[in-house]
Amino acid sequence: MASAGFEWSNNTRLRLSVQGEPGEISLASLTRVLTESLRVLEELDGAISRTPKGSIEWVVDSLSTGSLVAEIAARPLDVDRLDLAGETASAVAARFVAGLREIQTEATVPPFFSESALRAVQRLSQTIRGNGAQAFQADDVTGGNSVTVTSETADAVRHTLRTGDESLGAIAGTLEMISIHRQPTVNIYESRTNKGVRSIVPKEPKERYEQLIDQIREALGKRVLAAGRVTRNLNGEPIRLRLESLEVLKDTALPSTGEFVASDPNFTGELTTEEYLRRLRES
What we know:
By secondary structure, the chain is α+β, with helices and mostly antiparallel strands. 35% of the residues lie in helices and 31% in strands. A hairpin with a 5-residue loop joins strand 7 and strand 8 (196-200). Helix 1 (27-49) packs antiparallel against helix 3.
C-alpha cells in the first residue's frame, strides 16, 4: 500500500452501482458484485501496467444508498512509480467500462481481458438475476463513459467462451499473471490485439512442467512465443492454450500473431510444434 506524504494528482474514479428496490438488494449480491468487479480491475491493472502484482489499488471514496453506489478511487501501490500508476489508473477505468460494453454488444473478448476476467464478468452478471438486484452500472467518472450490465450479459459471456476449433499453434505476446494454485496457468496478451489467452501448464510429464515453470518465472513481463494446443471460440479468437514450449523473444524478433496462431489443425504436418517453430525461425 502507498505510504502517506506524497502528492497524487490523478483523479481517476469509478462509480459502481447495484440497481434495485431499496431494502430488497441482499448484502450477498452487493458483496459479490464488488468482489468480481475488483477481480477484473486487478487483472486489467496487471496486464496494462505489465506489473504482475499491479500498480494501483482501489479505495472506497464514498458510499450511498437507494440503489447501492460505491465510488472508488485509484491510488498508487508504489510512490516511486507515480507516472506508471497514473497512466494505468486512467487506462484501467476506461478499459473496464469499454470492455463490459464490448462483451454485451459484440460478444467478443475485449483487449486486456482473459478467460478468467470474462468468468468474473459472468459471475457478476448472474448475480443480477435475483436477490433484489436488477442491474449493475459502472461509470468512469473521470472519462465520462458508462455501461449497464444486466443478467443477459451472462449469456453474452457464455457465447464468447463457447469453444470451436482446437489445433496446434502458438501465441506471440506478453506473458503476465502467473497462478500456480491447483492448475498452473499464465495469461499471454497477444501483441496484435492485447487480448488475453489463458495458458494452462500441464503437470505431466514432471520434468517438462518444472522446466516450463522456471521459464515462465524468468519470462514474466516479457514478450514470448508460447506453443501448444490453441482453443478458439466461435468468433475464431484464441482464448486458451495448453502450453508445450515457451521462448522469450527479442523485441526486434517479435512476429505477427496472425502468422503463428494456427487455423489449420494439420498446419505442422508430421512435425512437432517445437520442430515446426524452429524450422520457421531458421528459414
